[in-house]
Structures are given as structure tokens and as C-alpha cells.
Design brief:
about 230 residues; 8 helices; elongated
Amino acid sequence: MSRLIYVVDDEANIRNLIQAYLKKEGYEVEVFGSGEEMLAKFNEQKPHMCIIDIMMPGIDGYELCRKIRDKSDIPIIIVSARDEELDKILGLELGGDDYLTKPFSPRELVTRVKTVFRRVRPVQPKERQILTVGNVNIFIDERRVEVNGVEVELTTKEFDLLCHLCLNKNKAFTRDELLNKVWGYDYYGRSRAVDDVIKRLRKKFRDCNGKINIKTVWGYGYKVEE
């Protein structure tokens, strides 16, 4: 399978030139005119590498690097007109694997792409991890929940608790077990915190007609039933 590379640059001639040279080398290449466009596609399908311009309107290359690194460890090559040492250091500190200054030779970029691929462990795009219970879809890696295609806004603890219960469907957990798993072993708060989050989850799914059965096991705790 050929490796997929995303190229983002607000200058059409540059991104098209990069695309042409990389395609000649057998890579699959998709180009984007903005960080927002690339990030939207990145959330749908992760590539094997990103080539990113820094000076772009909207989400600039530095912020884009941060957002990618929050989700993945794929290789990133930064291509920028900024040639100061501090710019290069910042780009590499934010997760870039290489930094190439404009104007550049397309052949040099191709060589750097090959070098970075040799240097890093081959990365396969991860398939989306989707957990479905009733009409509720839980996108685990994206930390997102949908009911009938409509996103349900959950807090961090709501998502973590829901995810843990759904990954262990039909298994009952005590409040203390859920506190340890979701809040952590060093949490010293009330076990009622579990009840509060369960109450909020039930209300949110009830309001959006989410068909998920978060059941109370009286005298014990909670579980999600099929």
C-alpha cells in the first residue's frame, strides 16, 4: 500500500508542485489550502505524513503541529519561508521531524521525505475506533459521542465513565471501582461523584432520545446493558 501524505500550503503553486514530485515517487498525496481543511480531513483519515507550511491565515503551521501531535505521532515536515534559528527550533520542539526553508528544491524535499520515513517506525493510519451501544456511537480516539448522527456534548468525566461502562457491557462495577478507574486512585472525593455523573449522562441521553441502558445495580453500583 502506498503511503499517504497530506500537504498544506496557502500557495497553490507550491502545494501543487510538491504533490507532482511526490506522486512521481509513488506516494499518494492530498493537498489543502488551509490548516482548517487539513485538520478536518485528518480527523476522518490519518495519513502517514504531513508536510506543513507555517505562515498561513487562520490556523498557522505551529498551531496545526500542536493539534496533530495531540492526536498522533506521524512524521511532520515543516516547509516555511521563516529561516531564523528560533523559528526552526520552535517548529522542531512542537513536533516537527524536519524543517525545510523556502525557496527549496522539490528534489531535496522528496529526499527528506524518504529520509524521515526511513528514520521513523512505519505508521499505519489507524482505523477509527467506534463503539456502538443502541443508537449511541462512541468515537473513542476522537473522544466524541453521537446519537443518530448528532453530537452529544459530554464533559471529560462523563465521556470516560460512559466509555468504561460501554467497553465492559453487562459487567457491574461498584462506585469505588469506577472512582478508581475514571477519577484515579489518588482521588479523595465523594463516591457520590459517580452518581452525579450517571445522573447527567442519563439526562443527556434522555433529552436526545439516546437508546442506552445505564442500569443501577441496587446496593452495588452501575452497568450498561445491551
